C-alpha cells in the first residue's frame, strides 16, 4: 500500500528521471518502460480471495486500531444482494479498503463475494489494475453493475472525485451526496437495499491540496497529499467503521415516484448519528 501512495506522490519526480534515462539509453529505464507498456496489454486478472485476506490488511487494521459499530438492525440477509455505500471518500479511502477485507470474515455476516465498483480508468493503469482486480473490483459502468447485482453484493463510494476535495474546502468532515443519485437509481433498478457505511477518521489520515477542475475534466484525481512527517504515509489515527441500517430500495422507489428525493437527507442524518456513536462504550474490535 505504501508503494501505491509513494508511486503516486513521487510521480512528478520519477517520470522525468525515467524519460531522461530512456533518452540516454539507460537499460533500467528502458526495461521499466517496456514492462509498463507490455502490462497495458495484459488482462487485469480475476478476484483473488487470498489477496483480499492477506496478513497485510490485518497489519493495517492494527495500525489504525480499527473499530466497528453496527446498527442494532444492521443484519445481513444471506439470500439478498446489497449496495454498501461507503463515506467519506477522502484522498484515499483506506478505511473502506480495510473494511472490504474484514467485514466478510466469519461472524460479520457479509458475503466474501462482494465486489467493489471503481472508475473504469483504473483498469487501464499498468500494475495497479491487477491490485484492483485481485481485490474483487469491477467497473462502475451501469451494465456491469447490474449484472454484478444479480449474484453479488456491491461496495461503492458514491462521492467520486468530488469527495476527494471535500476535506480541502471544508473545515468539518463533510460528504458529497446531494447530486449523487446514481447509486440510488441503481438500487431501485436492481431491487436491492442500500446499506450505508461511514468511516470516522478516514478523511483525516492525509492532508490534500489539489485541482478539482482538472480532476473533473480528466476524470482522475490530480492532487498533492501528505500524512506523517510530511510523507505519503497515513497518519496513525483511530478509524471507526459504522454500519447503518439497510434502506430498502422499494421505499426509495416510492419516494422518488412521489417527488420526494429526500433519501440523501436520511443518509446525512445517519452519518451525523454515527458521530455520536464514536464514543460508544461497547465498540467491537474489528
From TrEMBL:
An MF annotation (GO) of this entry: diacylglycerol O-acyltransferase activity
Cellular location(s): Endoplasmic reticulum membrane
Keywords, alphabetical: Acyltransferase, Endoplasmic reticulum, Lipid biosynthesis, Lipid metabolism, Membrane, Transferase, Transmembrane, Transmembrane helix
Coiled-coil features, chain-numbered ranges: none
Pfam families to which the protein is assigned, alphabetical: DAGAT (PF03982)
Transmembrane annotation, as ranges: none
GO CC terms of this entry: endoplasmic reticulum membrane
Topological type in the membrane: Multi-pass membrane protein
Keyword Aminoacyl-tRNA synthetase tagged: no
GO terms classed as biological process: triglyceride biosynthetic process
PANTHER family the record matches: DIACYLGLYCEROL O-ACYLTRANSFERASE, DIACYLGLYCEROL O-ACYLTRANSFERASE 2
Family: Belongs to the diacylglycerol acyltransferase family.
Full protein name: Acyltransferase
Amino acid at each position: 500500500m505504501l508503494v501505491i501512495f509513494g508511486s503516486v506522490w513521487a510521480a512528478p519526480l520519477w517520470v522525468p528521471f525515467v524519460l531522461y534515462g530512456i533518452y540516454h539509453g539507460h537499460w533500467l529505464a528502458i526495461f521499466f518502460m517496456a514492462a509498463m507498456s507490455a502490462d497495458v496489454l495484459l488482462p487485469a486478472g480475476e478476484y483473488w480471495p487470498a489477496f483480499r485476506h492477506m496478513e497485510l490488511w490485518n497489519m493495517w487494521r492494527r495500525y489504525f486500531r480499527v473499530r466497528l459499530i453496527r446498527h442494532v438492525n444492521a443484519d445481513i440477509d444471506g439470500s439478498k444482494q446489497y449496495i454498501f455505500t461507503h463515506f467519506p471518500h477522502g484522498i484515499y479511502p483506506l478505511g473502506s479498503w480495510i473494511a472490504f477485507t474484514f467485514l466478510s470474515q466469519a461472524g460479520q455476516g457479509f458475503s466474501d463475494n462482494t465486489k467493489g465498483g471503481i472508475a473504469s480508468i483504473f483498469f487501464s493503469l499498468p500494475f495497479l489494475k491487477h491490485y484492483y482486480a485481485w481485490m474483487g473490483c469491477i467497473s462502475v459502468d451501469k451494465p456491469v453493475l447490474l449484472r454484478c447485482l444479480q449474484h453479488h453484493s456491491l461496495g461503492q463510494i458514491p462521492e467520486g472525485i468530488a469527495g476527494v476535495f471535500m476535506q480541502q474546502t471544508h473545515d468539518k468532515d463533510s460528504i458529497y451526496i446531494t447530486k449523487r443519485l446514481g447509486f440510488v437509481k441503481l438500487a431501485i433498478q436492481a431491487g436491492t437495499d442500500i446499506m450505508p457505511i461511514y468511516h470516522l477518521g478516514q478523511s483525516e489520515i492525509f492532508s490534500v491540496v489539489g485541482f478539482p477542475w482538472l480532476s473533473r475534466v480528466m476524470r482522475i484525481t490530480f492532487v498533492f497529499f501528505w500524512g506523517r512527517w510530511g510523507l505519503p504515509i497515513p497518519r496513525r489515527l483511530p478509524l471507526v467503521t459504522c454500519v447503518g441500517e439497510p434502506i430498502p430500495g422499494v421505499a426509495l422507489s416510492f419516494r422518488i415516484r412521489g417527488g420526494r428525493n429526500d433519501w440523501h437527507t436520511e443518509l446525512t442524518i445517519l452519518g451525523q448519528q454515527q458521530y455520536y456513536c464514536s464514543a460508544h462504550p461497547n465498540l467491537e474490535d474489528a
